[in-house]
């Protein structure tokens, strides 16, 4: 919403006038000058018909009168100074299709600080006048004419003294239009002032005064009869044609225009206060109705993180089953015919003992008598590779480790296990490689129970490493645990961003925000109520993600839950503010693209797919400024390393997310200040 400049020396002492506009200027750009020295006077208790061709600036003018837009220069003086003394009916209906009539009346009534009984009695009276029936009917299911009449009911509900009606009869049949005009005339007789715009020029004959607007100025302002008499015609349409032809519009000289705009514009309408409990309650009530009517969206947003965490844990990091490798064992006819696999039994060949450990690692084996066959099967994709034990493998390996220096190349070859793998799949080939090494390690462990001096044991003990307990983490390393912090953080930020941007955009597109702001609601109340709704959803989302991840799927969680929870909550809050910032700065489509960019960049550049350490130093510096990079690292460090809040890594994570929250708030404030954003794009 644009701010409205309020200067104290412009009082609303304007005698019998309800509205005075003095020397008004307004342009959207150098090519769209809408008001160019515009003057207008509306007497109290009269109907003022504002006429002009489409696009001449009627809506812009009305929006300046109600304090939604600001003039570039000039003065607006009103006999009233509070927004709630104005009843504004926008050109578009700007009401929720999903709400029923009672809910809509209840919302707007509360915005105007009316009590429930008052809302009901006045609402029913108006409904009768406008010939509308059940209050339980959904607004969206009313006919076009009924919707327009109901929109007028909403405008009249709080009995305002100044009514501003933007094309109230557009698209209505003549009978309904006539009944609306009759009612408007009754209101004027009761002392209300009405400004009405219409495309139907002849309809405006019923107004007390008519203002003919063209190219940013008022061509004439008088009673319909006076206008027709002065032009010597008997229809308003002809009069308008003559006046337009006589008017020599000059192209606006922008330098002159800018000089005019040196002095600030003024208006006597007050800005809505920052916070008013009743209006906030109205907004919360609206959010409640909205959530019930759009339960699918609420359900999706609440369960999106749960569903994703479930899928993540169920699908990623699991060991692929039925990984088959081929075995060619020239030492003994395959498969090994031994009943027991006693590791200490020296009569069992070493190849059989090793094959047994491989089976224990969950790999399935396919035996071949010929290397050629094993190779062909592997090329066709029936196995992930094959290994070959040579003849006398056990004997040769003993020699290799007892007396390797004197061995021939041929014997050395016989003491090796040849492995040929399908390396086209990175994950599976690395997994099989790891399993083969692990089965070798297990073979070694099992041998410990046998003769410790055996030469075979010495094979196992050839590596000069003693692997000790890890500093952080466990031997049972898992990609899912690595991604744990990232998945929670991305869901925490993205789902709140999505929900906020979606609901604010829906409100902007329906025109509901514009209409509510004209009814006195403040931007702070809109954001606060949206934030509260979002906060409740966020608590549910984060709570359920934590329970699933750390209780059900037992991801490492070494720290106290307070700081990790607080960090994810801040990430959610950041998503909410980013949602505000983008939805008030950009339109719906751009907001969607920004959301997608946010997730993609975070996934690919934020150290989620691959460690940051592998990135080019310039890219690494850039990624630090993404919303989640540092806070994901902080969360991972708290959970897996038990680092506290004072550790620099954790501290930087908190600082980074707080910085992004501040950045989003700043963008929101700047957008609201410099752009007329709480408006549908025309
Ligand atoms: N937010 C905006 N940004 C840029 N241009 C705008 C904006 N709002 C209106 N305009 C332009 O200003 C001019 C006046 O528009 P406005 O809606 O005030 O006219 P109008 O007389 O109410 O038209 P209509 O009778 O068709 O509703 C139009 O050329 C319109 O395109």
From TrEMBL:
All copies of domain ABC transporter, residue ranges: 19-240
Topology of this chain in the membrane: Multi-pass membrane protein
Segments crossing the lipid bilayer: 297-316, 479-502, 531-553, 565-584, 590-610, 657-674
Location of this chain's protein in the cell: Membrane
GO cellular component: membrane
Keywords: ATP-binding, Membrane, Nucleotide-binding, Transmembrane, Transmembrane helix
Record CDD domains: ABC_DR_subfamily_A
Pfam families named in the record: ABC2_membrane_3, ABC_tran
Coiled coil ranges: none
InterPro entries the UniProt entry points to: AAA+_ATPase (IPR003593), ABC2_TM (IPR013525), ABC_transporter-like_ATP-bd (IPR003439), ABC_transporter-like_CS (IPR017871), P-loop_NTPase (IPR027417)
Transmembrane helix in keyword set: yes
GO molecular function: ABC-type transporter activity; ATP binding; ATP hydrolysis activity
Protein name per Swiss-Prot or TrEMBL: ABC transporter domain-containing protein
Species per Swiss-Prot/TrEMBL record: Cinara cedri
């Amino acid at each position: 919403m644009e701010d409205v400049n309020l200067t104290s020396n412009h009082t609303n002492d304007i005698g019998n006038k309800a509205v005075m506009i003095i020397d008004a200027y307004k342009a959207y750009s150098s090519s769209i000058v809408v008001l160019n020295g515009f003057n207008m006077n509306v007497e109290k208790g009269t109907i003022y018909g504002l006429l002009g061709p489409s696009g001449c600036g009627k809506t812009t003018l009305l929006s300046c009168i109600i304090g939604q837009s600001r003039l570039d220069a000039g003065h607006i003086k009103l006999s009233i100074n509070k927004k709630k003394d104005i009843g504004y009916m926008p050109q578009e209906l700007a009401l929720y299709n999903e709400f029923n009539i009672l809910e809509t009346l209840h919302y707007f009534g509360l915005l105007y600080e009316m009590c429930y009984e008052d809302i009901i009695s006045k609402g029913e009276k108006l409904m009768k006048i406008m010939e509308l029936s059940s209050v339980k009917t959904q607004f969206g299911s009313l006919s076009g004419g009924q919707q327009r009449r109901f929109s007028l009911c909403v405008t009249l509900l709080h009995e305002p003294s100044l009514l501003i009606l933007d094309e109230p009869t557009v698209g209505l049949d003549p009978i309904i239009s006539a009944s609306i005009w009759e009612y408007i005339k009754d209101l004027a007789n009761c002392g209300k002032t009405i400004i009405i715009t219409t495309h139907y020029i002849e309809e405006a004959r019923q107004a007390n005064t008519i203002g003919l607007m063209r190219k940013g100025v008022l061509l004439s302002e008088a009673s319909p009869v006076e206008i027709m008499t002065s032009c010597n015609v008997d229809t308003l349409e002809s009069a308008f044609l003559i006046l337009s032809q006589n008017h020599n519009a000059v192209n606006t000289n922008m330098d002159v225009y800018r000089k005019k705009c040196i002095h600030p514009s003024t208006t006597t309408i007050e800005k809505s206060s920052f916070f008013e409990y009743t209006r906030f309650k109205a907004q919360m009530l609206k959010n409640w109705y909205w959530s019930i009517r759009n339960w699918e969206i609420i359900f999706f947003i609440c369960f999106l993180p749960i569903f994703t965490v479930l899928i993540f844990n169920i699908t990623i990091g699991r060991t692929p089953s039925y990984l088959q490798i081929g075995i060619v064992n020239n030492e003994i006819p395959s498969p090994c015919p031994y009943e027991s696999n006693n590791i200490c039994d020296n009569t069992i060949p070493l190849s059989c003992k090793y094959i047994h450990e491989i089976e224990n690692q969950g790999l399935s084996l396919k035996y071949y008598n010929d290397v050629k066959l094993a190779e062909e099967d592997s090329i066709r994709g029936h196995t992930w590779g094959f290994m070959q034990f040579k003849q006398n493998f056990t004997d040769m390996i003993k020699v290799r480790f007892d007396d390797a220096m004197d061995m021939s190349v041929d014997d050395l070859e016989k003491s090796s296990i040849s492995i040929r793998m399908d390396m086209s799949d990175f994950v599976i080939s690395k997994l099989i490689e790891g399993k083969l090494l692990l089965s070798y390690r297990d073979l070694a462990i099992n041998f410990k129970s046998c003769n410790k001096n055996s030469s075979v044991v010495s094979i196992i003990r050839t590596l000069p490493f003693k692997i000790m307990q890890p500093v952080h983490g466990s031997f049972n390393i898992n990609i899912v645990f690595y991604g744990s912090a990232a998945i929670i953080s991305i869901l925490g930020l993205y789902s709140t961003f999505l929900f906020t941007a979606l609901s604010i955009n829906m409100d902007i597109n329906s025109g509901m925000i514009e209409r509510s702001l004209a009814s006195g609601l403040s931007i702070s109340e809109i954001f606060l109520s949206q934030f509260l709704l979002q906060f409740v959803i966020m608590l549910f989302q984060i709570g359920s993600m934590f329970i699933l991840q750390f209780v059900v799927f037992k991801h490492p969680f070494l720290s106290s839950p307070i700081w990790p929870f607080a960090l994810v909550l801040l990430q959610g809050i950041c998503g909410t503010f980013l949602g505000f910032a983008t939805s008030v700065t950009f339109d719906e489509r751009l907001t969607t693209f920004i959301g997608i960019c946010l997730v993609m960049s975070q996934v690919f550049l934020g150290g989620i797919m691959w460690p940051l350490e592998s990135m080019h130093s310039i890219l690494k510096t850039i990624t630090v400024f993404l919303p989640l990079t540092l806070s994901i690292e902080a969360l991972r460090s708290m959970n897996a390393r038990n680092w506290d809040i004072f550790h620099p890594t954790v501290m930087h994570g908190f600082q980074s997310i707080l910085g992004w929250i501040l950045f989003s708030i700043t963008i929101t404030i700047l957008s609201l200040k410099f752009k007329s954003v709480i408006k549908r794009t025309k």
